[in-house]
Amino acid sequence: MPRSDSFMEYTVELLKPLGPVQARSMFGGWGLYYGGRMFGLIIQGQLYLKTDDVTRPDFEAEGCRPFIYQSRGREQPMSYWTPPADAEDDGRRLLPWARRAVDAANRAAMKKAAKKAPAAKKAPAAKKAPAAKKKPAAKKKPVRRS
After folding, report:
1. How far is the C-alpha of 65 from the C-alpha of 30, rounded, in Å?
2. For the region Disordered, what residue ranges are annotated (predicted)?
3. Dist CA 64 CA 32 (whole Å)
4. What domains, with CATH codes, occur in the chain?
């Protein structure tokens, strides 16, 4: 049976106007998904939303903080940031920030897909006509010498 978390359930309820949000347990927290793409993270009772180069300045301007974890004795920031303080408990104010996060997740997926696609497809080579089949050589009748 999947584990439950009241903060996760509350957050998913706040995000209901966004559309069908799914929460999946991961790494001691929760991943929040919309349209199959992860746009949010809940860890240690804190919501973080996906950012990218387009949306990060908005989060920074509102005094939001990035999710940072420790790895090999170093701090590793991630592309997930807290929403503004006045939006954390207000679904109406949280919705535009969640939409930014969904947009950032979609852009990241498109960027990833573009990297997987070949850089430039070559034009297909002109198809050659199949070689004509040669007729089998006619059998020669043995010549009798008398």
Report:
1. 18
2. 108-146
3. 19
4. 6-110 (3.30.1460.30)
CA distances from 32 to 97, 115, 137, 140 (A): 14, 25, 73, 82
Question: What does the block give as tokens for 28?
Answer: 């001691």
Q: What is the pLDDT of residue 114?
A: 84
Point out the least confidently predicted range of 72-81, 100-109, 112-121. Answer: 112-121
State the pTM of this model. Answer: 0.74
- The residues facing 75 across adjacent strands are 70
List the end-to-end C-alpha distance of the chain, in Å, as a whole number: 99
| Mean pLDDT, rounded, for 64-91 | 93
Closest to 41 (Cα-Cα) out of 71, 66, 74, 72: 66
Residue whose entry in the numeric block shows the structure tokens 């109406």: 92
Cα dihedral 6, 7, 8, 13 in deg (nearest 10): 90
Q: Determine the pLDDT at residue 15.
A: 96
